[in-house]
């Protein structure tokens, strides 16, 4: 993890209640694309590390005999259980643990997924642990939004004013990004490809899954997005959370006279590494 920053359990404290409403979905075709690439047929086991509220675990579970979601945040796991029950998915197990606790007696998996969570881990340690949990030909999969600015042309409402929102958060919490009880002056680390190559993985294969969807977002949705993030988690504002939210809502209301925003759902990128066969 980043030098000078230590993970603590408050990283996403209070964010789970806002996550599903606030975050944009992955492209609808990501499950089919991954199943086709890996030949998933309902057998084997899936491990989703840093599973959050089951955003990826629940829709992927039907491609496996069993799926396990791991997350250190109890609130996230509670929301994941609710999502699985709502969607009628029952081949799931939820485990409260950090990625650094792996293998944690969980056994062997056909596929291990990190959906925008690997950057929060001690990467060398976690990559080595995951390598030992996969059989020959097993897959390490990173799921992420494509980091491009989608076009706003033709949208029925203005795009949320994300730059102004970020500036408001900085005015309230300081110029350096907050993360749990610490700060991340340089953000989270990259270097994923180097780390995974060093752990013995081959790849990656890159798949871009197009979205094309346009979603309408209310002021409440954008407020939820802010509080779903580690750098805007509710606990960071302490007793002044209500005051911050009032400022945020005023900013958003001024940016859209009708109180509605719109944006294009980003494409989803799947990066797949495999363990050597034989």
UniProtKB/TrEMBL annotation:
<dbReference type="Pfam" id="PF13649">
    <property type="entry name" value="Methyltransf_25"/>
</dbReference>
<feature type="domain" description="Methyltransferase">
    <location>
        <begin position="47"/>
        <end position="138"/>
    </location>
</feature>
<dbReference type="InterPro" id="IPR041698">
    <property type="entry name" value="Methyltransf_25"/>
</dbReference>
<protein>
    <submittedName>
        <fullName>Methyltransferase</fullName>
    </submittedName>
</protein>
<keyword id="KW-0808">Transferase</keyword>
<dbReference type="GO" id="GO:0032259">
    <property type="term" value="P:methylation"/>
</dbReference>
<dbReference type="GO" id="GO:0008168">
    <property type="term" value="F:methyltransferase activity"/>
</dbReference>
<dbReference type="InterPro" id="IPR029063">
    <property type="entry name" value="SAM-dependent_MTases_sf"/>
</dbReference>
<dbReference type="InterPro" id="IPR051052">
    <property type="entry name" value="Diverse_substrate_MTase"/>
</dbReference>
<keyword id="KW-0489">Methyltransferase</keyword>
């Amino acid at each position: 993890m980043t030098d000078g920053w230590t993970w603590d359990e408050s990283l996403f404290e209070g964010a789970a209640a806002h996550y599903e409403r606030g975050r944009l979905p992955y492209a609808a075709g990501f499950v089919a694309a991954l199943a086709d690439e890996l030949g998933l047929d309902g057998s084997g086991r899936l491990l989703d590390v840093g599973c959050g509220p089951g955003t990826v675990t629940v829709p992927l579970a039907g491609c496996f005999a069993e799926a396990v979601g791991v997350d250190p945040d109890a609130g996230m796991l509670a929301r994941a259980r609710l999502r699985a029950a709502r969607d009628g998915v029952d081949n799931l197990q939820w485990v409260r643990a950090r990625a650094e606790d792996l293998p944690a007696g969980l056994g062997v998996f056909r596929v291990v997924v990190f959906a925008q969570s690997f950057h929060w881990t001690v990467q060398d340690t976690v990559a080595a642990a995951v390598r030992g949990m996969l059989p020959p030909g097993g897959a390490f999969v990173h799921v992420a939004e494509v980091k491009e600015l989608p076009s706003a042309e033709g949208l029925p409402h203005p795009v949320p004013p994300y730059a102004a929102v970020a500036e408001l958060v900085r005015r309230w919490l300081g110029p350096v990004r907050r993360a749990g009880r610490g700060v991340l002056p340089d953000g989270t680390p990259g270097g994923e490809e180097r780390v995974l190559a060093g752990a013995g993985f081959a790849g990656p294969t890159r798949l871009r899954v197009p979205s094309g969807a346009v979603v309408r977002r209310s002021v409440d949705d954008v407020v939820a997005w802010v509080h779903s993030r580690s750098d805007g988690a509710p606990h960071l504002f302490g007793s002044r959370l209500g005051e911050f939210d009032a400022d945020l809502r005023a900013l958003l209301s001024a940016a859209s006279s009708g109180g509605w925003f719109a944006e294009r759902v980003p494409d989803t990128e799947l990066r797949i590494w495999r363990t050597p066969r034989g």
